Amino acid sequence: MNQVEEALNTLIQSIKSSPEYTRYQDISARVHEQPELERQINQFRRENFEAQNSTGIWDLYERMDKLEKDYEDFRRRPLVREFLAAELALCRQLQNINLSIIRNIDFDVGFIDL
User: What is the average pLDDT across 60-72?
Assistant: First the structure.
């Protein structure tokens, strides 16, 4: 195993022992115990993903506005709110890791704003 693979394995283990990851796993397990709630959460996540990856800025605003309204009451449910917050925290952690790597190596990504 080379040095990069070893460092990657260490990073993975660090992520898995992080508070963000353990919280996400704990809440995810609680959600999994309620199949209908899990299905609804996944439907919301799917629609959210599709809206954020749609083409056209106005389409995005319209879709996000509709999504917010359609799921307003649903997102107020405590377990749903906890799950979405834990997922967001983990995603932000992974984004920060990725950004840190990109910013600290000589890899030209000048075509995007970081």
Answer: 90
